[in-house]
Amino acid sequence: MAHTTKFNTDLTGKTALVTGGTKGIGKAIADELALAGARVIVSARNKPTGDSEHHFIAADLTKAEDATLLAREINEKFGGIDILINNVGGLTTPGGGFSTLTDKHWEDELQLNLIAAIRLDRELLPQMMTRKDTVIIHISSIAGRQALWNLNLAYAVSKAALNSYSKALSTELAAKGVRVLTVSPGATKTPPMEKFITDYASSQNIPEEEALAQLLKQTGGIPMGRMAEPEEVASLVRYLVSPAAGYLTGSIYAIDGGSLPVVS
């Protein structure tokens, strides 16, 4: 008999953790999961300004002890989670190619964009496997598949490593009730992206509009003609963590307006 499912994206009764969940893509994801009915926990280094409907836990996930304390508080206060969104990350290293990058640059980028996710997965997975039907989403970047040597070399390498780790983890956990997926945004309207454009414009002594055009040209442009909104990334994440996507695991989903110039 054919197996049929309804397009169900309701998350009522689920508990989700979104790291880096106080601004940009992370905040949009947290808000979207809450709209879907989930109880949402967010973590970041600093408490967000203003009111938030989400439970906040301060954590610097580049520090192993903070990951341990975050997981402990979640398990004690909430009894664990069903959904983990590893969103924390960012481009922190200078451009200019290999000669500008020190060991410290490489280590910092790997800690932020790869090791932080690995250590938090390790802390939370034992509990997640007991619940079954749980989901981990790693927020990567199209840079992991299209590095720009003069702009984001270390960042791109760290995200490529995250992609590989996520795929391997999905294979290990597929029979244990945990789905693992990767979402790779392209250029998205977030505060870090705006700062990157501003800094690049300043370094080249050109207007920000010209800086953005130059940056997009290096990647081949965006066929849809605009950057993504954080809410569009969040919408994809909501679908992927929902029952409607119950047979999906191990895949990388680019959300880039068609900018990656590859078939797969």
Structure description:
This protein has 264 residues and is of the alpha/beta class. The chain has two domains: 15-187 and 230-255, Rossmann fold (3-Layer(aba) Sandwich), CATH 3.40.50; 190-227. The protein has seven helices and seven strands, in the order βαββαβαβαβαααβ. Helix 2 packs parallel to helix 3 (103-131), helix 3 packs parallel to helix 4 and helix 5 (191-204) crosses helix 6. The longest helix is centred in the middle third of the chain and has 29 residues, at 103-131. The model has no long low-confidence stretch (mean pLDDT 92). This is SDR family oxidoreductase. Keywords: Oxidoreductase. Belongs to the short-chain dehydrogenases/reductases (SDR) family.
State the order of secondary-structure elements, H for helix, E for strand: EHEEHEHEHEHHHE
Largest sheet: 7 strands, parallel
CATH architectural type of the largest domain: 3-Layer(aba) Sandwich
| Approximate strand percentage | 5-15%
Oligomer: single chain
User: Structural class of the helices, strands and pairings?
Assistant: alpha/beta
Strand order of the largest sheet: 3-2-1-4-5-6-7
CATH domain class name of the largest domain: Alpha Beta
CATH superfamily of the largest domain: NAD(P)-binding Rossmann-like Domain
Shape: globular
Family: Belongs to the short-chain dehydrogenases/reductases (SDR) family.
Pfam families: adh_short_C2 (PF13561)
InterPro entries: NAD(P)-bd_dom_sf, Sc_DH/Rdtase_CS, SDR_fam
Keywords: Oxidoreductase
